[in-house]
Amino acid sequence: MINLYPAESRHSFDLGWLKGSHSFSFGNYFDEENTSFGPMRVMNDDTISPKRGFGAHPHSDMEILSIVLDGALRHEDSLGNVMVTKFGGVQRMSAGTGVVHTEHNPSDTEDVTLLQLWFEPERRGLAPSYETTNYDPNSLTGRLLPIASSDRVEHSVAKLHQDMTVYLSKLEASSTLSFKQQPGRKVFLFVIEGRLEVAGTNDAKTLLSRRDSARIVNETVLKLEGAQGADETFFMLIDLP
């Protein structure tokens, strides 16, 4: 079953220095019927103005993944980590027993746009940790590239403490990919740019446009195709328990 969530169905806001959209309940936005998808708890699509950001704040028992789409994001935490990440970079923080961090846009002139995702860890009480990894944006075309996973098969893939994998991909119009899924697992799809057609085992196609998402269950094979009229489609696929 493929359940479509159009971009306009998200909770969106504009604080001037921060513009964003929440795909799940977060902060002041709460919908008791939209709090999670498997272990996935947060999918925020944020744009932060130059020299602005989030001051020191704590987290615990959560896997937090920040994927920079444009601009630069500066992270500093109570573990002593300080890092600036740009497009092609991924920040992973396992909050575990507790960590305090800040997130800022260090640029004087440019916004930073990022996706931030939170997942429940496989168990509570892990030692907190942080890492920044990088992938080659030129290697996204025509493949599902893992950028974070519980099964780190490449050094460039961030290690998640949950049985899941986050992929990025780009497809040209009419180009296709297949994704095989184990029975009982879930898929979260999110189109960053362009348009994507997805079909399950019954071959019925669902069209996702820019910033649309889909929550998919009980499908063992997904057929993904760059839709006509989009020069290139950039999307994220998450395999979840």
UniProtKB/TrEMBL annotation:
Locate the residues binding Fe cation. 57, 59, 101, 103
Q: How is the cofactor bound?
A: Binds 1 Fe cation per subunit.
Q: Which cofactor does it need?
A: Fe cation
**SUPFAM superfamilies from the xrefs?**
RmlC-like cupins
CDD domains per record: cupin_Yhhw_N
Q: Does the keyword Chloroplast apply?
A: no
Iron among keywords: yes
The GO terms this record gives for MF are: metal ion binding
What range(s) does the Quercetin 2,3-dioxygenase C-terminal cupin domain occupy? Answer: 147-240
Pirin N-terminal domain residues = 15-118
Keyword annotations of the record: Iron, Metal-binding
The family note in this entry says: Belongs to the pirin family.
Protein name per UniProt: Pirin N-terminal domain-containing protein
